[in-house]
Amino acid sequence: MSVRQFTKHYETPGRVASAARHHAWLAEHAPPLRLPALTVVGPTSLTYEWIDGRPAQTEDLPALAGLLGDAHGAAWTTDLRSAALNRPHRFRDGIAFGDYIGPRQAALRRRLEHGYLPDRAALHALLTLLEKTAEGPTAFYKDSNPRNFVITEAGEIYTVDTDDLTLAPMGYDLAKLIATLVLTYGPLPTPAIDSALRAYNEAAERHDPRLGITDRERLDDFLALHAVLTAPYAGRNGYGHSWSPRPCPRGSA
Question: What InterPro entries is this protein classified in (predicted)?
Answer without folding.
Answer: Kinase-like_dom_sf
